[in-house]
Amino acid sequence: MQRYLDLIESAERTTPTGFDVKTVRLYDKIAVLRQQMRELKQIGMQLEEQPDKQLSLTNPDARSMATSGRGSGMVGTTSR
After folding, report:
1. Share of residues in the chain with pLDDT > 90 (%)
2. d(CA 5, CA 1)
3. pTM above 0.90?
4. Residue ranges per structural domain of the chain
5. How far is CA 9 from CA 13, 30, 38, 41, 61, in A?
6. Integer distance in angstroms from the first to the last C-alpha of the chain?
């Protein structure tokens, strides 16, 4: 994805078209995508730091637990 975004920016720099409304919207969308990529990278780093490689963004104590169903599971917390 990063390579695609870089190619778009490179193509826009080499093709002088001026800044019309579509170009401004495209730059806004690219900025949003770049921010989302930074956030996902940060989440990925947090995930790698977890000993069980699980991360819940809403409840830090929640973990995936197997249930009696074949190949099924649920997310929850254990009682203490």
Report:
1. 24
2. 6
3. no
4. 2-55
5. 6, 9, 18, 21, 42
6. 43
Using DSSP's 3-state secondary structure scheme, residue 23 falls into helix
Helix (H, G, I), strand (E, B) or coil at 66: strand
Residue type, 3: R
Q: In this structure, what token pair is assigned to residue 60?
A: 């830090």
Query: What is the 3-class SS of the chain, one letter each residue?
Result: CHHHHHHHHHHHHHCCCCCCHHHHHHHHHHHHHHHHHHHHHHHHHHHHHCCCCCCCCCCCCCEEEECCCCCCEEEECCCC
Tell me the HSE value of 51 on the side-chain side, using a 13 A CA sphere: 1
